[in-house]
Design a protein that fits this description.
- The chain has helices at 5-15, 19-25, 32-43, 47-62.
- The termini are far apart.
- The chain contains 4 helices and no strands.
- The chain has one domain (5-62).
């Protein structure tokens, strides 16, 4: 999937296929592990780490102060 990233990006941005069509062409993107890897390839960050870090930040910001 690393080798075809630029092709997939071009396809998504220019052709704008429906998700169902995209998943037919790239069935590995149905796998959780591939979603994490694709996110990392595109954004350059770890999806799980980013998600949980932001979740903790939001949780702390909504917590009432203990005074």
């Amino acid at each position: 999937m690393d080798l075809t990233l630029s092709f997939r990006r071009k396809e998504v941005v220019i052709d704008k296929p429906p998700v169902s069509q995209l998943l037919q062409r790239w069935p590995a993107l149905v796998l959780e592990s591939q979603v994490y890897q694709e996110f990392s390839r595109v954004v350059g960050k770890n999806l799980k780490q980013e998600f949980y870090a932001n979740l903790l930040i939001k949780e702390r910001s909504h917590r009432p102060d203990s005074q």
